[in-house]
């Protein structure tokens, strides 16, 4: 993991998941709003998608857990060797992946066995995030200032994501909380890339000066720009999905849609006041 | 920004916005209470006001973002110059303004496109405040004790405002939370002025002794007095707005109002128990 | 304030208020439960009690604010004298009292003017507590370990009281939250006494060794014992009030009460499941 | 308590209680789901179980409180001896046990006297946990790094348990919060064992090197593995209890159960969307 690639891989993973979740949440919300006029998205479809999502999560987590153990120079499942702990950093990463695997398993179980409480995956997901934040918090003992700072920001964003997911668990079906979570996941993804660029510049340039206060001042706003970027991505996503659903709706049931949309729009604005 | 004027301008901005929000919240609340007897404030009016508010926010944020870049001695959009970061403090301020601009944009979008969730601007506003608190928190690396202390208090009030705004996002239409937020925004505004007076006395007097513990002891209660002042402003505001609405109501529909008010008053007290 | 009496007076004040609030909450709760059978407590009475409570708070706060200024050796309203701040500790205390006075004023206003939101006094009370916690937090710059520790515990209990009061503001009419707040207020009261005994032993004995770790270890559990004591006081209170209300009820309407109580009891247990 | 046994005993206690609570919560939830078709678990039975639970808690707490005082070398109720505090560590433990005893007493009172609010035991339990966390937080003044770290993790898990229990108090009857609490209690139990193994190895081996950073890195993930274990225990528990209830149900009312289950399942999935 102590390499550019080691940060780019989980970064890409989180970015893709964040993008996918923002699309799913928007789609669900828009379909629900439109459903009064025309049935587009069916519950069964969303169920199957959730199970697929769980399978993907399990697959990714398994790859991660096993990969961290068996890469050349990895611990190869040996925890204690020659009187000292054996490559604990890799064990840390394996543990994080394992908890995300648990989320995938719960996802699959919850959407196949109907007697399980439906908000269990949310709880497990917030647990996995809290565990990730906890491990990263204890990950950088004895490193240098810049290294600690970028990881602290990572802990901050992971902790906040866990908090938002826990809120989602308590208050179900709030689309804005879901999008907020997606934006934080996107931020985590791009921030992993940023850490890679800062600590292990891929161009072969020397790493940033770890004791320079200006670097910290810059990374502070850089973090905010990443966040702004994730907002813009989600906004464009939302516009695109809404436009796609509406255009598809018009093709399928052109006459009613036009009529009913006005009625609906008024009801909406009524509710929202 | 490192000047009296640099603190007075955002201070004035926040003070004016806080005042305006406290008026708006009170007006909305009083109109809602009176509406049972007489229709005064219309929904359409409030919608138009929100859009105007968004436009003002965007305008202010744009002025701020651009101003911080192009004032004489500003970074002029150059981030990295001659092997080091270029005036990061101004970039910090630009970033903060940018997020407030995003709030304005969301405000306009949400009240023109009815399919967007109505509580989105609240979420964006709490985000902008959290980002502001985060940036100010990392803003004072390596400064002196007094400077750090007054900025820490600023971070405290901004963070609390963000928290209250997030609560507003979750629990909509609670007038007291709205007034609490307004009072915290007022506090932020007057505190910016106080920082200006402490660090860059406009009278030309020397700055306060940055290592004197007594200055910190005084600024602690000074902060509380600012808060008390913001309460008093909001209280007077409330009294004034209520009196205006009621007097205008009496002129418009004198007979029913008198009769119905008693009925209503009893219902109110019933509900409030 | 730097004396035994200076800690005993606010201690007694908070203890009495805590006791009174626990009685009021219990009485309200028991009356509400019994009301289905027999009307004992009337709303009007509770209103008048609230106004009286507000008046008492204003009176106490006024005494405190003025007393801190005009005691022999007090600042006598002079904030800045001979090139330095004038007795800021007394100004700190005056500020705290002033905020509790504001609570009293809001109490009176809210229960005389019916158009004001009914939960305003709760919000003001939680604000007054947060301000008190904030001031005490910045109160002990440059003192000794034991002094700081006992004041930190004070800050902890005040902050928690503020938090519970804020929860009461959001979730109205939860009797257990009210009793929890009363217990924390009682704890604050007895802890003020404890601080007086630790820092200014009234018997004339020398103050406790401020650098002894064992003193801190003891005060940790002592704090918990105070808390346990406040629980026991509230429990006894509850038993007494319930017994009084029930016995008075039996005298007034003996036949129905007996009959209806069984019905009611079943309904209760139904609800509580 | 400064021994392996002193950590194993409370560890076992918490483990057993966590296991029992997870069984009870699952049983209650499954019975409630099945009740629409067949009445299995009765309210009266659950009431009696709660009272028994309270009695067990009181018994355990009494044993603990008294045991800590009268073990050979204990303080024997003497708080101050020969000019210094007498074995405060044991007094700390006694205080913790006492608060858990209070929970037991409230449990018994609440389920025998029906006029008491039903969520009182939850509040008392969260209070007991917060007190425990507070005492452990102030328990390790002046010890070594590893000792402090393992106790900090203990404080973390106890504080989180208190927080979850407080949430349960506010949001009643959320099965997932109950299971989350059980899992945290299980974690606390196994972590007590872990502390025993780290600080007082029972095999007679030397204690772990208290200044080795690698030990802290390992204990970080070890803590997460304990947590994962508690999840697995609760999952297996859930599967077992569900299977038992369903199989018993089939034996009792075979015909209707089959028919109704399908109907019910659809309703469930409807609700859960």
TrEMBL record, chains A, B, C, D:
Family: Belongs to the TMEM45 family.
InterPro entries (UniProt xref): DUF716 (IPR006904), TMEM45 (IPR042127)
Protein name: Transmembrane protein 45A isoform 2
Top-level taxonomic group: Eukaryota
Residues that span the membrane, as ranges: 12-30, 91-113, 149-171, 183-201, 216-241
Pfam assignment, any one: DUF716
A GO cellular component entry from the record: membrane
Predominant location category: membrane
Signal peptide: none
Claim: Transmembrane is one of the keywords in the record: yes
Location within or outside the cell: Membrane
Keyword Membrane among UniProt keywords: yes
Membrane topology per record: Multi-pass membrane protein
Assigned keywords, A-Z: Membrane, Transmembrane, Transmembrane helix
